[in-house]
# Entry
Amino acid sequence: MNENVGTATSRNGEATADARNRASEVKDHLRAAKDAATDTVRSTTQQARSWTRAQYSQLQERVEAEPYKAAAWALGIGFIAGVLITTLAQAGRR
# Structure
């Protein structure tokens, strides 16, 4: 009977060590996945920044090349936005 107790304790020790090894492997795997996700987000963010800067630069060049046309567009968009907001505000009061 005492032999079984010693064997069970030995197996529990091995199982605990095995569980710790697996937990360590899972932690390493999760760290690698986190690092990969972080790198992907950083890369995507950098691409978005460079795209936004390029678009802004192009817009600025267009406005500088044709300032009257840009002003007319801005005035038209502002007028339409004002009409829409006024219409929505009046509809909300009813």
Summary: The chain has two helices and no strands.
